[in-house]
């Protein structure tokens, strides 16, 4: 099964490293695409230094949805499953594994959504 994780990112250099580490710690392998959306900080350079695929939006005026649409237009047909994750989020190591189990339970199912929990990552540094 070929999986892509899309991370739409607008000026997320302060959280992107933790986000990418969370994706890399999944129990199931996934390709990672950071969609650099109208960034004015070092988000794009950081993503490249983390050795993930990047896509820079072109003429996007529709914010996150526009960034996702540009990525999906380019990559949707190349993958069996796509995870969309915010750049300021760290996911549990088994999120992707559990999502795949759920989506495989029913052939009519087209998407799953995770239950969000909040962790104060700033106080743990």
What is the averaged pLDDT score? 92
Could you name the CATH topology? Answer: Spore Coat Polysaccharide Biosynthesis Protein SpsA, Chain A
| Beta-strand residue fraction | 15-25%
- The domain tally reads 1
Quickly give the structural class: alpha/beta
Structure in words:
This protein has helices spanning 16-24, 43-49, 63-75, 95-104, and strands at residues 3-9, 31-36, 53-56, 81-84. The chain has 125 residues and is α/β, with parallel strands linked by helices. It has one domain: Spore Coat Polysaccharide Biosynthesis Protein SpsA, Chain A, CATH 3.90.550. The chain starts with a strand and ends in a 21-residue tail after the last helix. The model has no long low-confidence stretch (mean pLDDT 92).
Summary of the model, kept short:
By secondary structure, the protein is an alpha/beta fold. It has helices at 16-24, 43-49, 63-75, 95-104, and strands spanning 3-9, 31-36, 53-56, 81-84.
Describe how the helices and strands are arranged.
Blueprint: E1 3-9, H1 16-24, E2 31-36, H2 43-49, E3 53-56, H3 63-75, E4 81-84, H4 95-104
Parallel strand pairs: 1-2, 1-4, 2-3
Short key terms for the protein model shown above:
single chain; 125 residues; alpha/beta
